[in-house]
Amino acid sequence: MKNFYSARQIFTGSKWLNDSAVMVENDIVEEVIPLSMLPPETNISLHAHYLVPAFIDIQIYGAYSRLLSVAADTDTLQKMNDYCRSGGAKYFLPTISTNETKVLHNGIDAVRKYWKNGGEGVYGLHIEGPWINKIKRGAHLEKLIHAPTIAEVTSLLEYGKGVIKMITVAPEVCTDEVIQLLKSYGIIISAGHSNATYAEAIRGLDLGIPVATHLFNAMTSLHHREPGFAAAVLLHTTVMCSLVPDGFHVNFEMIRLAKKLMAERLFIITDAVTETSEGPYKHTLVGDKYETNGILSGSALTMIKGVKNLVQNCDISIEEALKMASLYPAKVLGIDYRIGKIEKGFNADMVMLNENLDVLEVI
């Protein structure tokens, strides 16, 4: 059965179309065609101002008072999926911060069970730490942070085979052998929570680390005598980097600067947590952000809030903001050949928005 979707404006991921419709069959985009080519009796959805590619959030820890590291079960993942969809994200990577191995295993088990039960939205697991630098730990638990051994890495990767998609590490605390081992399992390595110098950062990125985690946060900052990790990310030719666009994690002017330097290498995440009084990470909502023990520990963003902030506060065009939430994260995950655009052959993963960029429906 063919379904047809339209809006006043369709953003395909590369261009804007007016007076057009998306023809979908078996959840795949068959064609994007002019409305004038549709038969008069065609049933079509026309209640949106914008029809755009669905978003992808590759770093989110919990939702609706359920933190994955505390409540590692399918109910938590379903609530996270509901939260992500409310912000226009069709896919997400549930994330666990530095924690005990048992907690990581529980998260892996939960994802497997969620998939087995037909759960939607979860693309895989993102583990942030514990192989990071204590000096740039942020809200992470210092006592659990350490340099990894080959045996430890192998054990975790074997247990999480097929589930773990991304791991954030500090390149200066990992040997070259560890980096190559992670790559051999197909893990997307993201560099973050790092105290590396500019030279150390460049070396790590050049080893084949393709991504960095939340630009400017938990990394050596810009300095005119020691450029630091942030400068290495800004000036690198290929590395991509996530950014938390809430105005708290990163000043909006700094986002404008980063965008000018990085262009298509910069994308957004929510880094969203949720209120919880259980477990080692007790997040409390303070205004529009979360803190634990007085330290900034996560955002209260949805992906659409992040898109709005880029457009309204960072002088970034709506089309670029949309790509930073969809096409560019898809590129990080290596799925931009089928997700992130509204084009023939792509998954029919789309979001309907009103004129104020509010989410009406995720398709």
Structure characterization notes:
- With 363 residues, this protein is an alpha/beta fold.
- It is 28% helix and 25% strand.
- The chain is built from ten helices and 22 strands.
- It has helices at residues 74-86, 101-116, 150-159, 176-184, 198-206, 228-235, 252-262, 303-313, 318-325, 327-333; strands at residues 2-6, 9-11, 16-18, 20-25, 28-34, 44-45, 50-53, 55-60, 62-63, 66-67, 89-97, 125-128, 164-169, 188-191, 211-212, 240-243, 266-268, 284-286, 289-292, 295-299, 350-353, 359-362.
- The strands form five sheets. The protein has an eight-stranded parallel beta sheet with strand order 8-11-12-13-14-15-16-17, sandwiched between helices. Strands 3-2-7-21-22 form a five-stranded mixed beta sheet, with helices on one face.
- Helix 3 (150-159) links the parallel strand 12 and strand 13 (164-169).
- The chain is globular, with a radius of gyration of 20 Å.
- The two termini are 16 Å apart.
- 53% of the residues are buried.
- The mean pLDDT is 95.
